[in-house]
Amino acid sequence: MKFKLTTLFLVLTIGILSAQTKKWTLQECVEYAVENNLSIEQFELDLQNAQIDESDALGNFLPNLNSTVTASGSRGLSSDPITGSNFTAGIFTLGGNLSSNVVLFNGMRNKNRMNRAKLNAIAGQYRLDDLKDDIRLNVALNYLDILSNKEALKVFKAQYAFTEQDLKRTKELVESGVVPKGDLLEIEATAAGQQQQIVNGENQVLISRITLAQLLQITDYENFDIADDAFEIPPSDILNNSPKSIFAKAVGFRNDIKLSESNVELAEKDLDIAKGARYPTLAAFFNYNTSYSSRKQFDPITQTSSRFDLLDQLWLFDGITYGGQLSIPIFNGFSTRNSIRRSEIGVEKAKVQLEQDKLALETTVNQTYANVNSSFASYEAAEKTLEARRLAYQYSKERFDVGLMNAFDFSQAQARVDNAEAEVIRTKYDYIFRLKVLEFYFGIPIKLD
Q1: Cα 87 from chain centre
Q2: Which of 128, 141, 298, 393 is at 20 to 30 A from 25, Cα to Cα?
Q3: Where does the UniProt annotation place the signal sequence (predicted)?
Q4: Which of the listed CATH numbers 3.10.20.440, 2.40.10.10, 1.20.1600.10, 3.40.50.300 matches domain 22-62+106-279+329-441?
């Protein structure tokens, strides 16, 4: 029994530790965000409403059916609902009605409402998918921001480790009288500045982790972290395509463009519905009525009065009415005409919005394309600068070790290397993100391989 309890404790402990140390990949973050984002949940509920509206539109084609049952009693002067005669006695009456109405023609408005409801459900799906696209991009941006901050922090710690070694050597040189004490103070100041960099770097990592956790609706910030894999520049053939070809493909599948196109179709259906009010409406109706009275009734066959039971009266005193109704609009204070004009304006506004959205997408693709080229050029320049700074630092270090350079100039050489390394990290992840965005507009899913 003791062995079983120990084993269970170890399993639970390992499970808890593994849960606390889970490292999220980009794919896991994207999938979790799409499944748990509150805005997505809200849009999904809106989509369900749109599907219910589609069911309502279908119901307009069907006849309605309603039934009423009325029971009443009276004393004193009363009126028999069957004969219409007045009398002074107690009476109990029961009445029933079954009615149905159906619209046969109303200017095709029911058909257009049905088509509009279907289009609205499709538009709702495009709206939901477009939101998911935006969330995927935001998750990727924040994920890469954490990676960038983590790499920068590693560089800060590595730089501080080198400075500690220089500090140790400088102390020995000062004690042996080779270099003045002022050089030691300069190295100590450099070390203090790098410690501050480490503190700031750790804070940036924490802030970026919290930002991504909030985007994923995760409140356990302390135990949330992403995989520590370092990503290099990924290979990509996207730049072999022109901005025009990338835009042409994006227009064909982007959900925001499909949403705008759906809005144009919705506006056109609204116009058709408004125009339908100019036509007559033809409806049919059917009514069935029956009643019962506790008062004696006159039997025309036997020429006597007697009290029929409930079922007999409901059968004898029932009646049916049916017919049709034609409503012709003649004048309604310009409301139909103005409704049509408003709908026509709505169509034009939707078309203008579609063109604006296409123009905005084309502008974004062109800017992203240019940014990919410029960010890669910046990355290459930063790498060359870093290589040159490192060579200059190595030369400065050799001179400093033999006393041919003071500590201030040596610390400046170190600072230039620090800045160059930070710039390489910044431009690398800036290029990766812009490249992934451009691929995303070309229909390539966001992945970090």
Answers
A1: 72
A2: 128
A3: 1-19
A4: 1.20.1600.10
